[in-house]
Design goal:
heterodimer; A: about 400 residues; mainly alpha; Formate dehydrogenase/DMSO reductase fold; about 75% helix; B: about 260 residues; alpha+beta; Alpha-Beta Plaits; 2 domains; two-stranded antiparallel ribbon; 10 strands; about 30% helix; globular
Chain lengths: ~400, ~260
């Protein structure tokens, strides 16, 4: 099916060239990082993980969210999702590859990354994370590719694909649970040492991932006239709404435990994220308040069915939701985890320009992969006559 | 440039000879070396079931007391002096509130609340850094010392997130330009790996006590925690001591006489 990539309109190649240019810039900056070391980042002895690891965490969630289409379609036979499942699976492929790249660019000695496999250490959550992410990548690529190929040749998918689909549902939960365990098992990091971390991660993934998918599908609809179907989109919006309610609820649970117990260690990271330190505001404070306001505003637009089904309002609600969840997990999680330091002091962290450009490069690679795979999926649907929505 | 078959055979023959003789040489030396996967201790090696350290904080009263032990350690191990917050530290000092953040209150003696305390790797019984390391690059020896293999470290810094004592440093850059007086007897590290205090395993192997202990004139004690007659056990029996963050269950091996 790869040959379909060579039969595109100029607009498609222009878009791909634009993404490739961003990737190129990221690669150049990464070469500097390879030569000079991680000194080009804003990380420090006290804040030893930053933008890269937080983006990795966020995109594990995006990858896992494909399950919100697969589960209703296969476990509950909700056939209206079958039309769009392939987009969820292919988005997961792009997201997992982004995750892996974000890990690699964060390493001080990236050429030694295979040491994780050469010297397997089952007591390390990082080892398991590498296992489950690789497995999830293979599952989604295999399932997506085989089902699409079968759709193209108008045959039923082979029998062995179904057990893999069921496996992928459990696997999706596992990737984000294991990623939460990276954080939730560390003694002395108060913001992370919470039993609800994995549940919070899943809730945040299952609202933000489908929201990104829906926004991208709206763009595709504008660009190619591919209609994912009104009912499918409404159901997905409902799923997003429930997941976001649970996500916000879980965060409020954290606030209760920290502030009703009155234990300073539990309060300090949250106080730092929202109000800074010793009367000094930190740059992250404005972002955290933006996240809080956007989270509430998105819920206000999503919970009432009349507003949720309003096609003009829905994209705005989704954009606010994505921004809120990205700040919570892509900035606050890491900064709150490392601040205060183990010495109860504050070391500020701001991502450097180099970090942001390398990160954008990886976003570009994700964009290239998802664009290519989605184009193949759309072209196959055009070939087989499943492109048009049937009443 | 065209290579004839003759040229190719020449190169191939030479390569085969080189490989063959290298293999023969290896075979000769392998007999003398220790078998793979095992190790032998040096004859002079100081041995213990559980190495531990006791720091008599009463004997660290001025900046010079701290500086001489820190310098001894950092010179011995080629620890670079990098300005800014991407620095590397094996042994350093900080206030009581930063060293024991759970313990301070406003009415402590001046000597405590305004004093400084030495910080280093605690060589825990149950080290979180070892638990999280994805390659086994950091591991706990049978004698209780937590060590690093900088050649296996991939620089993921999971151990730094895991350590509740902030004892680990990452080489954000090549450290060599920041080492004033290089000690050629100890290897400096490369950029991109994590490092920390090793309780001077290289000195124990030669029958010497750690560099900071030697430089401290008896203010830092070092010995076998499992031996009731050891200097550390005597000091622990006679003095009130505390450890950093004991509630986390890591079992630190560094004790402070207050």
């Amino acid at each position: 099916m790869l040959e379909l990539l060579f039969k595109g309109r100029p607009r498609f190649y222009l878009w791909m060239a634009f993404l490739a240019a961003i990737v190129g810039l990221g690669v150049i900056v990464y070469i500097f990082q390879l030569v000079l070391g991680l000194q080009v980042t804003g990380m420090s002895r006290d804040v030893s993980w930053g933008f890269y690891i937080s983006q990795f965490t966020y995109f594990v969630g995006v990858a896992a969210s494909a399950v919100m289409l697969v589960l209703p379609a296969y476990f509950h036979h909700y056939v209206k999702f079958k039309r769009v499942i392939i987009f969820g699976e292919f988005m997961a492929v792009g997201a997992v590859i982004m995750c892996m790249l974000f890990i690699v660019v964060d390493l001080g000695q990236p050429q030694r990354v295979l040491n994780v496999l050469l010297h397997p250490t089952p007591n390390s959550v990082m080892f398991w994370d590498m296992m489950v992410l690789s497995g999830y990548l293979i599952l989604n690529l295999l399932i997506g590719w085989v089902t699409l190929e079968c759709e193209r040749h108008d045959v039923t998918p082979p029998k062995w694909i179904k057990p893999l689909v069921f496996l992928s549902v459990f696997w999706a939960f596992s990737i984000h649970t294991v990623t939460a365990f990276l954080y939730a098992g560390l003694p002395g990091r108060h913001y992370w040492l919470t039993a609800i971390m994995a549940a919070r991660f899943l809730a945040s993934a299952f609202c933000s991932g489908p929201a990104i998918l829906m926004l991208l599908l709206l763009v595709v609809k504008k660009a190619t006239k591919f209609d994912p179907g009104k009912d499918a989109m409404r159901t997905l919006a409902t799923i997003i709404t429930y997941a976001m309610c649970i996500n916000v609820f879980f965060y409020l649970l954290e606030l209760f435990t920290a502030f009703y117990s009155g234990i300073p260690g539990h309060q300090h990271p949250i106080l730092f994220l929202f109000s800074g330190h010793d009367g000094h505001m930190a740059w992250v404070n404005g972002w955290m308040w933006t996240a809080a306001v956007f989270a509430i505003a998105s819920l206000a637009l999503l919970i009432p069915p009349a507003l949720r089904h309003n096609e003009a309002l829905l994209p705005w609600a989704l954009i606010m939701l994505v921004i809120a969840s990205w700040i919570d997990k892509g900035l606050g999680l890491l900064i709150g985890g490392f601040t205060p330091t183990p010495f109860e002091t504050v070391t500020n962290y701001t991502p450097s320009l180099a970090e942001i450009l390398v990160g954008l490069g990886i976003y570009g690679i994700g964009g290239l992969i998802v664009s290519a795979l989605w184009k193949i999926a759309i072209d196959v649907k055009k070939e087989t006559g499943t492109f048009e929505l049937k009443a | 440039m065209k290579k004839s078959r003759r040229d190719f055979l020449k190169v191939a023959g030479l390569s085969a000879f080189a490989l063959g003789s290298a293999a023969a040489l290896n075979l000769g030396s392998a007999k003398a070396a220790t078998a793979e996967g095992t190790y032998e201790t040096a004859p002079a090696q100081l041995k213990a079931k559980r190495w531990a350290m006791v720091i008599d904080t009463r004997r660290f009263t001025n900046a010079a007391d701290f500086q001489k032990v820190i310098d001894a350690c950092h010179h011995e191990h080629n620890v670079p002096d990098i300005p800014g917050n991407q620095n590397v530290k094996w042994l350093w000092k900080d206030t009581f509130a930063h060293t024991f953040p759970d313990d301070p209150h406003g009415y402590m003696p001046d000597r405590i609340i305004h004093g400084n305390f030495l910080l280093l790797c605690n060589h825990c019984d149950n080290p979180p850094c070892v638990r999280v390391c994805p390659t086994g690059a950091t591991f706990r020896q049978e004698d209780g010392i937590v060590v690093m293999d900088p050649h296996r470290c991939i620089g993921c810094r999971f151990c730094m997130a895991g350590c509740p004592y902030g004892s680990r440093s990452f080489n954000f850059r090549d450290p060599l330009p920041f080492i004033k007086d290089v000690n050629t007897a100890y290897p400096p590290r490369t950029r991109g790996v994590v490092e920390k205090c090793t309780f001077c395993t290289e000195r124990l192997a030669k029958g010497q006590l750690p560099a900071c202990v030697e430089a401290s004139d008896g203010a830092i004690l070092f010995g076998d925690l499992s031996d009731p007659a050891s200097t550390v056990r005597k000091a622990l029996a006679e003095n009130f001591t505390i450890r950093r963050k004991p509630t986390l269950g890591t079992g630190p091996g560094v004790y402070y006489i207050i």
